[in-house]
Amino acid sequence: MKDAVNSEPLALASLAESVGNTPLLPLRRLAAETSSLVLAKAEWANPSGSVKVRAASRIVAEAMADGRLKGRTLIDSTSGNTGIAYAFLGAALRFPVELVVPENVSPERKAMIRGYGASMTYSSPFDGSDGAILKCRELVKRNPDKYFYADQYGNDANWRAHFDGTGPEIWQQTCGRVTHFVAGLGTSGTFVGTGRFLRKMNPAIRLISVEPAAPIHGLEGMKHMESAIVPPIYDASLADLKMQVETEDAYRMVLRLAREEAILAGFSSGAAVSAAVEVAQKNPGACVVTVLPDGGDRYLSTPVWEEILAGH
Question: How far, in whole angstroms, is CA 282 from its chain's centroid?
Fold first, then answer.
């Protein structure tokens, strides 16, 4: 046990070095009819396969540093990707993880969480991420001494991970040429943290948030802010433009990404790229950057994926 404790700083440092610096991919065919450049961060290149490991690793590192995680089980609500990241970190750093997950998340996500050794409690599939949040809060209230509540929606470590990581990476990878940043809203950490950094570097950069067009939608991990529990870390004043994307348009873009750009991405990526292409069309000569939160391999067994293929 002593060796495990002494190895924690080294393990944290090693994990921190492996997170981030993901590729910035040009979407040349999708932007072919514009005079703008559209670039997308391939976040599936991160450990655990999604953008969420950026925030999760920062949350865990801070909790370990100040002792909040010592002797406790990390608990949080998640639609899947953050849960996978927590489970991955728990396996790597040897702490228990318990997650509250909507019952209808994809089988691949559930299998990955179980594979890393984390436990799951299911919330109603009809209540989405908000239902998972409320159920998680109930569990913490019942047994506060057992848990470290990571609270990805309200933990400032979430957006700071992107202020210190995703934002600087985009600035460096575009050599400061980025003119528009487009990102989907879930916890809002990616949009808020990256947006704040880019605006600090160049106040003229336009920040565009993306959310589903309706309260009931098929875009896992994304929030329709007007009807949802608004994350405490969300800064509504940050966006220069707030775009809404129809679920069907996001699904169509997922297939276009696969067939025109050879990028197999998730549904929230389809929403972000749909918005980014529209921004590029309306702003000639722009350099539009967006984020692909995860890969499409996490959704291939879902009925939605079969419906997308059947319709095209």
Answer: 26
